[in-house]
Amino acid sequence: MRKQVLSIIAVALAVAICTSSVVAVTNQNLSWGISVGQRLDYDYYREYSYFNDTRFDDYSIIRDFRFYNIVGNLPVISDDIDIRGELPTTPNRTCYYENGTETSYPYLWYVIPIGNWDLIIDLWIGTGVNESEIIDTPQFVGYNATWSWDDGNTTHIYAEIYSRSTGVLHTCQTYSPSENFALQYEIVLIPSDDIPVIYILAAGGIVSVVIVAIVLMKRK
Questions:
Q1: What are the φ and ψ backbone dihedral angles of 165, each rounded to 5 degrees?
Q2: Could you tell me which residues are beta bridge partners of residue 145?
Q3: Is 143 within 8 Å of 124 (Cβ atoms)?
Q4: How far is CA 102 from each of CA 63, 96, 168, 170, rounded to the nearest angstrom?
Q5: 3-state DSSP assignment of residue 160
Q6: Per-residue pLDDT at 43
Q7: I need a surface site. Which of 41, 65, 144, 210 has the fewest CB within 10 A?
Q8: What tens digit of pLDDT does each residue of 106-120 get?
Q9: Cβ pair 175, 159 in contact under 8 A
């Protein structure tokens, strides 16, 4: 039974990829991997932590909920893209909380055209991402970067990971600690009929890279 389910998923993915490749493909083989009206659900987590401040006890402010996007238009993709700024903007979306209440708050969300991930990776590297920070697997493409300043006293850890088959932002994590304050932010795509559970399971190894870094930073 398990083999049959996996076979069905594989066929469905193959059909989806073949279908998207014939819609508005540019001369750089880029096309949208999502469709107008598609729904994409996310887990959202944000934590502000305050510590080492003599004015008050250590405490955290946490927001933890789910939201979903309904895809609006699909912008035109240029035939010639040489720099990251020439990538099309993320498609418009209408955002709702899990209970169906519409929100105008712009929760972070990105979508990238699919079909030429080598080009996308080159564009990322061209804007300051190191080649060693690139994530490139059969399921995911993205980067896991770290920036430090103030003689290393302030560090920003950031991961931006996309589904290879759809170009949809799958995981975004950031952790910014300082002497008295730290911000942890995360959104993760929830599996659906379009995004099989096997993607989420595969993501565990990638996501843990940032989580381990966060734990180590907190212990310092």
A1: -80, -25
A2: 158
A3: yes
A4: 18, 4, 21, 22
A5: strand
A6: 96
A7: 65
A8: 899 999 999 999 999
A9: no
- The DSSP-derived string for 51-62 is -S-TTS--EEEE
Closest of 75, 210, 206, 202 to residue 155, by C-alpha: 210
pLDDT range class, residue 122, cuts 50, 70, 90 = very high
Residues in the chain: 220
- pTM score of the predicted model: 0.73
Which two three-digit tokens encode residue 167? 């170009």
Report the C-alpha gap between 140 and 55 in whole angstroms: 44
Mean of per-residue pLDDT scores for the chain: 78
Question: How do 93-97 and 154-163 pair as beta strands?
Answer: unpaired
Average of pLDDT values for 182-199? 71
Give how far Cα 38 sits from Cα of 49, 137, 159, Å: 35, 25, 25
Q: Are 185 and 173 in contact (CB under 8 A)?
A: yes
- pLDDT tens-digit profile of 12-46? 334 343 433 335 577 789 999 999 999 999 999 99
Compute the distance between CA of residue 80 and CA of residue 92 in angstroms, rounded to an integer.
Answer: 22
Q: Look up residue 16 and give its amino acid.
A: A
| Residue 124 phi, psi (nearest 5) | -60, -45
